[in-house]
Amino acid sequence: MRVNLGAGASPTPGWLNFDNSPSVRLYRVPGLIAILAKVKILTTHQREYAKIARNQNVRWANAVRRIPLPSGSVEVVYTSHMIEHLDPRSEVPMFLEEVRRVLRPGGILRVAVPDLLRSARRYVQETHDADDFINSLLMADQTPRHFFPLLQQALVGSRGHRWMYDARSLIQLLETNGFSSVREVSAGQTMIPDPGELNLREREDESTYVEARLGAVSPT
Predict the structure, then answer these.
(1) What is the mean pLDDT of residues 164-189?
(2) What is the pTM (predicted TM-score) of this model?
(3) Distance of CA 132 to CAs 123, 143, 178, Å?
């Protein structure tokens, strides 16, 4: 069993795909997506995502609280551009605990995140534009104060970043939370046996990739 958590609009064919976006639930209500789009509660992007979730059978799950799979049942967990949306002090440790629970011994976790180091280098070496740098981090905005923005956030969630990582900090995070053999990998590289249709270059122009194992693996 292989799982893509936070699949968004890029589910992996042949894998179990989960996402916590309310849009995954909204598309199950006949006609609701069209109504919300008509009154401009949903953006065009959110409407298209709901269609992808429906067509690709993306399942709803809050992976911070519980991944709806048995303990020790998963060979590989992949998550791309997801953990930066979680609170680093409370939600991230809970999420990684759930990943450890569902992975079997020796199971592999692959994480892709926006690369803070790449953004910082671009700021220091190229743009020298502090406003552009801060905007590029997409940090979470304040809670909206007006009715329709509040309703939109309640229905489709807030997608701002709560934290940012580079490869070094992500490796330290995984090691601190019980993973071993943690290492940065280049786009296109993996230690996942036969990754199938998993996109190993997903958002490579802005990402860093780290892989880890759960527990020690006996030599073969």
Answers:
(1) 97
(2) 0.85
(3) 8, 22, 36
